[in-house]
Amino acid sequence: MTEAGALAGDADRRFMAAAIRLSRRHLGLTGTNPSVGTLIVRDDGAGPRIVGRGVTAIGGRPHAEPQALEEAGEAARGATAYVTLEPCAHHGRTPPCANTLVAAGISRVVGAASDPDPRVSGKGYAILREAGIEVFEGVLADEAADLMRGYLTRSLKKRPEVTLKLALSADGMIGRRGEGQVAITGAISRAQVHMMRAESDAILVGIGTALADDPALTCRLPGLSARSPLRIVLDRDTRLPPGSVLARTAREVPVLVTAASDCPTPRRIALAEQGVDFLAVDVHEGHIALPELLEDLAARGIMTLMVEGGAYTASAFLDEDLVDRLCLFTGPAEIGPGGIAAPLDPAHGPAGFRLLREARFGDDHYREYVRAG
């Protein structure tokens, strides 16, 4: 927390927490822009009340601030704006959000995360201060940044934030050889995974998992099927069957196959006829070059990538040091002989990561780790 953030009161932290919760509403739906939350809060002597709310619109425009100001109307004059990310300062076809806050007569702005975009960083707050607006930065900055880590990672590293999700048995296995999908965790954990999918831009599996499990990789929570992410298959040789669930549903939920330039043309044509799209990839020592793949996905606007696919794919991302977040769901039962060992030791926590949160989902234990530092 910054010095200014440390000066904020309990009410500021409470309203910022509410703005952060609001920002979650459009995670995975805002294109190349982050999902930002804004609250306009006014106090006329009877206590503070929210008069305007806004969250980055689906597709990325309009931003949260003008939506919240429009809802507040004249009540915004003299009010406080709570923004989960520094207001933008660069001109497009619409004015910067910082200038919009000034024009609306906002008297105080409480901000959370900083924006690394050089067109914004520090400049949005400077516009506000030059207009005489009181600014408090860094209030619940870590909490806000955690939800927009995809945007921050893409801005700084030119690749998506990579979340590796694994379901582990009590004896550290992720499946049983030759048996396809094995139920390791319970229904509550599976529902949590579907919510993670709904908040991600894309989900990725290796071709081994696609062949063994024939997964759908969609969000199947009631009312959220439309939020199913782009589905990506690491498939150097285009082995995905045209009759697979992924291929047969490609016109409903997009599927992207990452294939080398020398993959067999008839296979590509058969999948293309089903609506499958392709992304040409570099190959290094016979394997898809993951760093270059992530750069290409970021260039397509993908900010958050959820990796669900198998021990081999999980190990590849870990070995390349490309994992930013680890989500481990551990079930109560053991798999025993014939099990597929997890690519990490869950008992001691992965090196280079810190534990962010823990939870119980029915009989399952959930641990979430993020990169340390």
Automatic annotation (TrEMBL):
Binds 1 zinc ion. The keyword Protein biosynthesis does not apply. It holds the Pfam family RibD_C. Its EC number is 3.5.4.26, 1.1.1.193. InterPro entries: APOBEC/CMP_deaminase_Zn-bd, CMP_dCMP_dom, Cytidine_deaminase-like, DHFR-like_dom_sf, Eubact_RibD, RibDG_C, Riboflavin_Biosynth_HTPR. CDD domains: Riboflavin_deaminase-reductase (cd01284). Pathway: Cofactor biosynthesis; riboflavin biosynthesis; 5-amino-6-(D-ribitylamino)uracil from GTP: step 2/4; Cofactor biosynthesis; riboflavin biosynthesis; 5-amino-6-(D-ribitylamino)uracil from GTP: step 3/4. One of its GO terms (biological process) is riboflavin biosynthetic process. One of its GO terms (molecular function) is zinc ion binding. NADP(+) binds at residues 209, 213, 310-316. Residues 10-135 form the CMP/dCMP-type deaminase domain. In the N-terminal section; belongs to the cytidine and deoxycytidylate deaminase family. In the C-terminal section; belongs to the HTP reductase family. Converts 2,5-diamino-6-(ribosylamino)-4(3h)-pyrimidinone 5'-phosphate into 5-amino-6-(ribosylamino)-2,4(1h,3h)-pyrimidinedione 5'-phosphate. This is Riboflavin biosynthesis protein RibD.
